[in-house]
Structure formats: structure tokens, C-alpha cells
Amino acid sequence: MSATDAADPFDVLIIGAGPGGLTAATYLARFHRRIAVVDAGKSRARWIPTSHNCPGFPFGVAGTKLLEKLRAQAECYGVEIVAGRIAKLERDDQGEGAACFRAAADDGSAWRARLVILATGVVDRMPSMPGLEDAIERNVIRLCAVCDGYEASDERIAIYAPIDDAIRHALFMRTFSRSVTAVPLHAGEPSAECAAAAREAGIAVLAPAASLCHDGQCCVFTLEDGSAHRFDTVYPVLGGDAQSQLGTALGAAVDDNNELITDAYLQTGVDGLYAVGDVVSTLNQISVAVGHAAIAATAIHNRLPRNFREDEASQPDTAAELPTPAR
């Protein structure tokens, strides 16, 4: 339901339904807040074949399965998640008690809310190669060394990035493997500092690759001289595009990666505009996004007008709508 269908604004509009957005939705619904969630279906988590460092899943969990569980948990408390892409977010101050924000989607739907949480994430820049999604599924292309460096332990690992970035990330990966190679994205010499660090750590530095492909078991870089170099795992470190535009359009500050800068309660520099997850200037991890959501949702609940429970006789019967506690 859009806010144009409702007499009163929502307490909170959550934009994005990845791990951060869905956790915030569950918290706020359990605080008995009236919320809306709009999601474009582009969560970065959907790329994860299996994560083994997500708390509570000792045998690993696929990103899609995790999103399903988080969505189901929010929906248990009456959260409705609307498919759509918010194209515009603006202030809508109309006096005390009125909505502070108005959001409009591509299809013309609109929402009014007192407060907003941006959980819009980051879009990774992917390497140009045939069968990319299959390579990710087979773990021959990996996207997060913090998440799954352990799973690549003692494999032949390549880092594909601009040359100094490739060497810096290769140094990080030396924790996990003796065989780590930097493959530059473009021609050029590394800085003296990075070149020395690579030599000291035993990191090979190849010439730039002409192409990248995979055969189901390995990734293969072909250099301009025709030589082929096979690796069990390739980490492309090509950067990403933080989806912070809705915030910056309102004046929110960002860091050098265009990720939003927030305070200790995850509020941006725009009053009433909060942000959680990968769009925030911090470590991009599922557990971090979930922590952001808990902090932001609780701060928002405490900031909003009190929503004391009414007398029992005047309350609707919602018991049938709530999940049955586990025994």
C-alpha cells in the first residue's frame, strides 16, 4: 500500500529489502510501528552461493535462502514488501505531526513517511567474461575475501584489479594461501611501496590480461602474448557503485566511495534520514548490516511519538496474525 492510499503517513519508510532493510523492518514491526518497505530486488546478497561466516548458520547459507528467511520473518509481523524502485525522495515538511519525507517510484506510486531508512546497498562492478553467474556459483569467481577467504585457503588465487589495488588485496589474501598472484586490470607499473611489498610477500605480478574465462573448475587469464594462467579462485576488485543517490540529493554527505556517512545511530547528515548496510561507509558484511538495522530501528522507535498500547477492549485481535512461539 502506498502512502497515497492512507490517511496518515507511515512512521518509517524502508527503501531496500536486503539483510539490513529486512532486519530493520522486523524490529520496527515488533515495536508496533507502521512501516512500508519498497524493494527493487537487487540485494547484493543474492550473489552469495554459500556463506559460512553468517552467524547462526554453521553449515553455510545461500544468499537467496537467507533473504527468504529474513523476508518470512518480517512478514510474520505483518510487514508488506512492495516491489518497486524509488526514483525520487524529497522532504515533505508540512507542520508538526506531518510527514517529513515523500518518495515516488518509477511506476508513479508514492509514499509519505515521518522517517526514512536507506538500505539501498552497493552494486559491484563485475569483470567482463562469459558465464559470469556460473563462475560465481562454482566459486571460481569470488566477490568477498572477508566473507570467504577461508574457503579459498591454499588454493591458487588471483586478484584482478588496478595494479596497486591488486597488490594490496593480494597481501590480504596471503593470510589464506601461499600462492597469490596480482593480475593488473590495465598496463602500468606499481608504486614503489606496492612493488616492494609484493616482492617481500612472494606475490607474483602478471602483465595485464587480454581475456578471462572459466572452464567450470578454474579461471583462465590469457595474456596479450598468448600465454594462459590458471587459478582456482579469482577475486575481481573492480570497485562498486554505492546506491546513495537518494541521500545525496537531499544533502547527505558521502565518503570517497560515495558511501553515506552516518552518526552513531546511523542517521545521515539529513535529519530523519537513516542508512544501514553496504550503502554506509563501513565494513560491508551481512552481520554489520544486521547490527546497523538494530541500532537504527531502536533509535527511530525511541525518537517517534510514544505509541502506548490502548486498553485491551479497544485493541484489534491480532493473535492469529503473529507467529506461534517455538517450544
Description:
The protein has helices spanning 19-30, 63-76, 132-137, 145-148, 163-173, 192-201, 245-248, 286-303; strands spanning 10-15, 35-39, 81-83, 86-91, 101-105, 110-118, 122-124, 157-161, 180-184, 204-205, 209-214, 219-223, 228-231, 233-236, 240-242, 273-275. It is an alpha/beta fold. The strands form 4 sheets. Strands 1, 2, 3, 4, 5, 6 and 16 form a 7-stranded mixed beta sheet that branches. It has a 4-stranded parallel beta sheet with strand order 10-9-8-14, with helices on one face. The protein has a 3-stranded antiparallel beta sheet with strand order 11-12-13, with no helix packed on it. Strand 2 (35-39), helix 2 and strand 3 form a beta-alpha-beta unit. Helix 1 (19-30) packs parallel to helix 2 (63-76), helix 1 packs parallel to helix 8 (286-303) and helix 5 (163-173) packs parallel to helix 6 (192-201). The radius of gyration is 23 Å and the shape is elongated. The model has no long low-confidence stretch (mean pLDDT 92).
In short:
With 327 residues, this protein is of the alpha/beta class.
Largest sheet: 7 strands, mixed
Which sequence of SSEs, written as H and E, runs from N to C? EHEHEEEEEHHEHEHEEEEEEHEH
What integer is the average pLDDT?
92
Q: Which parts are unreliable, with pLDDT below 50 for 5 consecutive residues or more?
A: none
Share in β-strands: 15-25%
Number of strands: 16
Gyration radius, rounded = 23 Å
- Overall geometry comes to elongated
Q: Residue share in helices?
A: 10-25%
Number of helices: 8
Distance between the amino and carboxyl termini: 34 Å
Backbone structural class: alpha/beta
